Amino acid sequence: MVKVKYVQKWIIILAVVLAIVVIAGGYIGYNSVVNQPTASPTPSPSPAVTSQQEARETVIMFIASNHTETQSLTDGIIWVGGRATPEGILGAETYIYTGNGWNVTIRNPVIPDPIYKVNATYTASGSQQVTVDWQGTYQHGVVTETKYTYTP
């Protein structure tokens, strides 16, 4: 009879330990599932279009639509470049972009809603000797031309 009580005692202890493990394991598993942030794909940030890039594109479209002799020069331009002013310089910014014979320089004061001064030049290399020199401003999608020369 002593052996039976001893075995029963161990069975009860084992059952209690097993119950504690199951309850604690369930709580830990439940808590980690409940407190997990929902997995959702994080979209890749698309590069933001800067005001200078917008000015550049609008000016090139303006040149092509107002000076038909330049239309073939403005198709499919692949731009490189960007900010030319070192970080930390106060007062004004300069951006320089080049592509397919074009060189576009944009200057603006660092103020809210600036007027962008734009110089766009095109120089053909090779057998085609064409140059374009354009100057003007850009603000709020409006382009104002101040100078235009085309030399075939």
Q: What class do helices, strands and sheet pairing give?
A: alpha+beta
Helix coverage percent: 25-40%
Helix segment count?
2
Q: Whole-number average pLDDT?
A: 84
Domains (count): 2
* Uncertain stretches: none
What about the largest sheet?
Answer: 6 strands, antiparallel
Q: How large a portion of the residues is in β-strands, by DSSP E?
A: 25-35%
How many strand elements? 6
Give the overall silhouette.
Answer: rod-shaped
What does this structure look like?
With 152 residues, this protein is an alpha+beta fold. The protein folds into 2 domains: 1-37; 51-151. It has helices at 2-34, 51-66; strands at residues 80-83, 92-99, 102-109, 116-123, 131-139, 142-151. It has a 6-stranded antiparallel beta sheet with strand order 1-2-3-4-5-6, with helices on one face. Strand 2 (92-99) and strand 3 form a beta hairpin. The mean pLDDT is 84.
Compile the SSE list and pairings.
Layout: H1 2-34, H2 51-66, E1 80-83, E2 92-99, E3 102-109, E4 116-123, E5 131-139, E6 142-151
Antiparallel strand pairs: 1-2, 2-3, 3-4, 4-5, 5-6
Brief write-up:
It contains 2 helices and 6 strands.
Jot down its keywords.
152 residues; 2 domains; 6-stranded antiparallel sheet; 2 helices; rod-shaped
